[in-house]
Amino acid sequence: MKTFKFELIHQSSKSRARVGRIHTPHGIIDTPNFVAVGTNGSLKALDSKMAEEIGLQLMFCNTYHLMLQPGTDVVKKAGGLHTFINRNKPIITDSGGFQVFSLAYGGVKDELKSKGKKKSDNGVLKISEEGVLFRSYRNGDKVLLTPETSIQAQKDLGADIIIPFDELPPYHIDKQALRKSLDRTHRWEKRSLDYHLKNPQQQAMYSVIHGGIDPDMRKESCEYLTSLPFDGHAIGGSLGKNHAQMFDMLANVTPMLPDDKPNHLLGIGDLTSLEPCIKLGIDTFDSSHPTRCARHGLLFSFNGTIKIMNSAQKMNMEAPDSNCECYTCTHYSMAYLHHLFKAKEMTGYTLATIHNLHFMVQLMAQYRQRILDDDL
Amino acid sequence: MKTFKFELIHQSSKSRARVGRIHTPHGIIDTPNFVAVGTNGSLKALDSKMAEEIGLQLMFCNTYHLMLQPGTDVVKKAGGLHTFINRNKPIITDSGGFQVFSLAYGGVKDELKSKGKKKSDNGVLKISEEGVLFRSYRNGDKVLLTPETSIQAQKDLGADIIIPFDELPPYHIDKQALRKSLDRTHRWEKRSLDYHLKNPQQQAMYSVIHGGIDPDMRKESCEYLTSLPFDGHAIGGSLGKNHAQMFDMLANVTPMLPDDKPNHLLGIGDLTSLEPCIKLGIDTFDSSHPTRCARHGLLFSFNGTIKIMNSAQKMNMEAPDSNCECYTCTHYSMAYLHHLFKAKEMTGYTLATIHNLHFMVQLMAQYRQRILDDDL
């Protein structure tokens, strides 16, 4: 029995934006939606009950981190991530590929600074057709990440949605190298899917569309990966060096993806990106941006971002956002939040995180309503 | 109308231990009880709703810290600490004396190491009959703490129970210097009380019994301070260099205190001290020990302390304490807590803190029951 299903509720008449519903073994994800990132199986500064109260429908956990700490053996023994972290709502895990290749090549930002010349020397021992051999930053153990070991790890973690093992090529890459990387990524995704389908465990698997910012290779990736029985499609690889490049790439890619499967955009969730990407047909976004902003004292609101540490907030006895109904805004003043941040009290990070995640939930609900109203 | 009242419920037939009930404008404190310390107006890693769910009846906030950050003007504008931190249960504040003299003389532990020779040079500019002039560690401002400014600050903070300004003499002090300090502390406490009584604001004020480990001076302090209209008595000053010295001092002091007023022991709340001190007639204890232990990965239980980081806990899928009904133990495994601490996730500190404070609430309820049963 297959419990994963994407239900298309409404297609906007104005754009590719659509409202949908992803059914999973742990419940429904209304789309478009934001996916909160809890790298280590914990949304930073929140426990799972708080996350549930905020109404976050899907949580993103990182296989790379969980493999190294606590180890998938521990999570498996617990009965999977849902039990281990006490979350009875949907979870998605990635393959570990992104992290291990970020170690190898550095992140896009580092890379743009170093013009792609910097090769990091931090743990990656060997990249081959089989996979990637790297050294654990925790205990120095050698770890081999391959399509098969990544998917087995994700089987042990037991998320509702899993991701095939792929290569994250650097942004600065010549066409020939990108071509080699794309071909290998496709072989790895096929191996991942084959391994997954031997024992689906009610998990769904999304492909990861690659091809960097090369329109032809993106097209080729869409054609190949949509020909395989994936349950949805994530857009990954290098998304470009700025918003414009990313939107161009998406405008090219999303029309090539099937309407009856969900589209996920990997690692993007900044406020500027959301609306344009939703209009281009993206259904879900994972990002640590809102929670990281919260811990850095930036509160989101429909009237712009509020800086908690701004000295004008010291005496502000109003709620951080008077229009907000989150736990933080209904229980505490801006002055108290300002004080907690000044005093470096952890509770400040918790309260700010609650607010920003609540904002994301409201924002996505607004987008869904606008789509239903054909207003997006 | 005076809303503060101490009600004696039961006097043990076996010791000075008693069960009582302190009535305050923000509700009842059952005694003996533990008072959680939220220095900056926040129990570290918890928000006030969690603290309330745990059942903590009295919270201790530090005037010294709150004066400097956010400033009593901010708290006053908010309508007092209860509103500012969103707590509708009783709060006690201290005078700031302890902190400012710790700066001047160093803490007892530092002092024992340096044999009292070390004079800290960290902000204290002048100690005189008027009070203490010091420099704010936050902004360099000169701040004058006197009996009157301390009590005015505590009026602005608006706690249910306040503490007069006193001098904390060093442990290593000769009799003549202790005598001078005691006399000045008595004058300062009298000035504090006089200032308080001009405008009681429904606040109660406890004296602070001084005299170090000199039995005669402790006696003199009891005699003088119990002759004044304080609402209760706190035992402060140097409590000795070890448990035995503290218990001896308390055995001398508590019989000299009136039965119809509550007795508080300042800054003590380690598990070893509680039972002997309760038997000597102490009603309330404030200490950051349980919350600090939690953040350092030590969980309290009735079967001894549990080390979260112990490698044996990695695979332990049981609750941290299977007999405990706290939120943490009913929702998470020891393995998850171990993982959160290993991964340095803030949520780990929150969950451990919830457990230890819940333990303290249960432990104190057990003591009360044993006293009611004449079993202590």
Oligomer: homodimer
Compute the average pLDDT of chain A.
94
Rg calculated over all Cα atoms of chain A: 20 Å
Tell me which CATH architecture of chain A applies here. Answer: Alpha-Beta Barrel
- Number of domain units of chain A: 1
CATH class of chain A reads: Alpha Beta
**CATH fold annotation of chain A:** TIM Barrel
Number of strands of chain A: 16
> What is the assigned CATH homologous superfamily of chain A?
Queuine tRNA-ribosyltransferase-like
Q: What would you call the shape of chain A?
A: globular
Rounded to the nearest angstrom, the distance between the terminal CA atoms of chain A is 36 Å
Relative helix content of chain A: 40-55%
In what range is the share of β-strand residues of chain A? 15-25%
Largest interface: A-B, 41 and 41 residues
Poorly predicted regions of chain A are none
| Side-by-side strand order of the widest sheet of chain A | 6-5-4-14-13-12-11-10
Q: In DSSP terms, counting alpha (H) and pi (I) runs of 4 or more, how many helices of chain A?
A: 15
Structural class of chain A: alpha/beta
The biggest beta sheet of chain A, please? Answer: 8 strands, parallel
